[in-house]
Amino acid sequence: MSTNVYIDGMNLYHRAVKGTPYKWLDLAALCTTLLPKAKINKIRYFTARVDALPHDMQAPDRQDIYLRALRTISNLTIHEGRFAFWPALLPQFPLAYLNKAKPPQSVQVLRAIEKRSDVNLATYLLMDCFDNDFDEAVVISNDSDLALPIQMVTAKFGKTVGVINPNSNRRESGKVNKELERAASSYMRMINIKVIANCQFPGELTDSQGKFSKPATW
Fold it and tell me: Which residues pair with 82 in a beta bridge?
């Protein structure tokens, strides 16, 4: 049985690896560990390029190195969206009332929204289904926007689609997305942080350009 894996990169990052020393994540090893009986045909990784900000000017460089590491995986392809930034005036939290008769105090924040990644993932999932490119698909995401395309693949085309919630067991507040759970053929509620820790690239890798190493700080 041929399996394609579709990974929501930002969802995986924020729910499983942010704030840990495990950002050098080998996605091929992760897929093999989570799906030991599957014959992995393709891994599609969906992400967006980060921008340099005053508090972290090296973020794009670290991301470039990680994407370079991912490209050493022969059956993995990277599909890029983008970030949109704009200032917004929003209520401060916890809510601060200077006058109880008036709305709470607001502060200006810089909002960053990832664009196109969920649409890209849904599009490739449906396109690969139309092309009969897999017997089963696995989506690593907790984004409810993907419920409808998953439901279409399972109900209309009779394909098996499993969903893996990228939330790790270190994040007790992570919630299971009920829409995805209902749409999927099967649903894994959590990725054990020990699995993330054990699925790391070696510190040094080699590609067609030569040798390169994991970023010294992350």
Answer: 115
